[in-house]
Design a protein that fits this description.
Elements: H1 2-5, E1 17-23, H2 39-48, H3 53-60, E2 64-71, H4 103-114
Parallel strand pairs: 1-2
Length: about 120
């Protein structure tokens, strides 16, 4: 923070927010991930419901948390539509076979991040 603000110690932050962009990596089916892709939707539900570790840390510090599905392999029709409003695709490509995302998909994902 000191480097970003150009002052040490850094100034106190106000309006702190946490934004989680969720997505699966297409190589998880090949055993290269610590967790299977099925964990990602569970984490989305946990964060959306305020039951994840990030939710507890944020609540303890009066910080808001938002979750957005940019590339989870499943849809979330039972969650608020806002969570999926930036969806780029379902999962990503398996990087040992193809690009994880196309250039256009990367640009779309980065544009979603720019909004927050």
């Amino acid at each position: 923070m000191a480097s970003c603000q150009g002052t040490c110690p850094p100034r106190q932050l106000d309006d702190v927010r946490v934004v989680v962009f969720a997505g699966d990596h297409g190589v998880s089916a090949d055993g290269v991930s610590a967790y299977p892709a099925a964990i990602t939707p569970a984490m989305v539900y946990g964060i959306a419901g305020g039951h994840a570790g990030v939710s507890a840390l944020a609540a303890a510090n009066d910080v808001t948390v938002r979750i957005y599905d940019l590339g989870v392999a499943v849809d979330f029709p039972d969650l608020p539509a806002e969570i999926s409003r930036f969806k780029v695709r379902q999962s990503s490509g398996a990087i040992h076979l193809t690009d994880a995302l196309s250039r256009a998909e990367v640009e779309q994902a980065l544009a979603a991040g720019d909004r927050w």
